[in-house]
Amino acid sequence: MRRYGKHTDEDDIRTRPNRKGTRPRTNIRPAHEDAAEGMVLTVDRGRLTVLVDDRTVMAMKARELGRKAAVVGDRVALVGDLSGKKDTLARIVRIEERTSVLRRTADDDDPYERVVVANADQLAVVTALADPEPRPRLIDRCLVAAYDGGLDPLLVLTKSDLAPPDKLLELYGDLDIPYVVTSRAELESGDAADRVRAELDGKITAFVGHSGVGKTTLVNALVPEDRRRLTGHVNAVTGRGRHTTTSALALPLAGDDGWVIDTPGVRSFGLAHIDPSRVIHAFPDLEPGTEGCPRACSHDEPDCALDAWVAEGHADPARLYSLRRLLATRERTDGD
Asked: Residue 248's closest CA among 259, 258, 236, 256?
């Protein structure tokens, strides 16, 4: 074995070449200041369809984003091939700050929250008045998720020809939630779509509801065929030739006056991620009364300051009842 003394000639030392090159490693990431802006329309198996100007672009998330995932409604920055041509792929290098987030968990024991939609202005909760029977607890859960995520709620009640809406509307009267009541005949004729559209213009609205309530039928009536064609090529990714509501899909309203986001039908709506201190923000008449509440108050316990606040006449007792009913949905099953 060759030995070297104290005064070795460095040129005489053999070095192994670096297969990965000689560029030093760095944590500095490119700013991508020239990246194009777009809106995520749908996500399918790691591929995202993004609207850039007036064309749709297929993209994937850049590795530098790590585990941060983009969802429907996200505003993103893209680089790469932005032509939108077949077999091209761009990279999403940045996800912009969200203005609102609709989240849910699989159930109340699941600590993993899923972001369903980002940057929506309102949440339209679609429920039938009969066939299937309305599920008030599921509606309550959707309302809590809307309040928590910064979305304004909207009730869309279908099949009013089978049952009157009065009883259900009375349950939510104290929440001052806007609503639209439609019948099956109006849904088939398109009259229902015209009335619902008045609540959607200029807004991004996420639609949620369980199977059989007419949600997808209503969405199809709201979005003309030529507008659905904008995202039509998305379906080819699945290999089935059509969009199945297994993932959310953003669709533009006629005249570019708003967006409808169709979400998959839900059987449950877990609220394990909900913090009661955020839900109270949707009750501005009650929120000042929480200043005297103990730390981490659930707003439904003996020491809650809201009882005294309401007793002193600062707010309607019915509003406090509504708040506590919504918060209590975390402790009930959807079928209660």
From this structure: 259
Let me know: does 151 contact 203? Beta carbons within 8 Å.
no
Q: Residue 331 contacts by C-beta under 8 Å, 6 or more apart in sequence?
A: 108
Count CA atoms closer than 13 A to 286's CA, side-chain side. 28
HSE-CB for 175 with a 13 A CA cutoff = 28
Q: Which of 80-84, 192-196, 215-219 has the highest mean pLDDT?
A: 80-84
What pLDDT was estimated at residue 274?
Answer: 78
Q: SS in 3 state form for 7-28?
A: CCCHHHCCCCCCCCCCCCCCCC
The angle subtended at Cα 26 by Cα 25 and Cα 32, nearest 5°, is: 125
Give the best-scoring range by mean pLDDT among 6-20, 106-120, 134-148, 321-335: 134-148
Which pLDDT score is estimated for 11? 52
Q: Helix (H, G, I), strand (E, B), or coil: what is residue 129?
A: coil
Token pair for 99: 């203005």
Task: Name residue 202's amino acid.
Answer: G
Distance CA 2, CA 76 (A): 59
User: Residue 91 has which token pair?
Assistant: 């990279």
pTM of the model: 0.81
The set of residues, in sequence order, having a beta carbon less than 8 Å from that of 31 and lying 6+ positions away, is: none
Q: Which two tokens stand for residue 141?
A: 């859960």
Q: Find tokens 């699989």 and name the residue.
A: 106
Is the predicted pLDDT of residue 243 greater than 50, yes or no? no
Rounded CA separation 318/323 (Å): 9
Q: Which residues, other chains included, contact 145 with Cβ-Cβ below 8 Å and sequence gap of 6+?
A: 102, 103, 104, 123, 269, 271, 274
* Token digits of residue 197: 């559209």
> What is the enclosing helix (H) or strand (E) of 294?
none
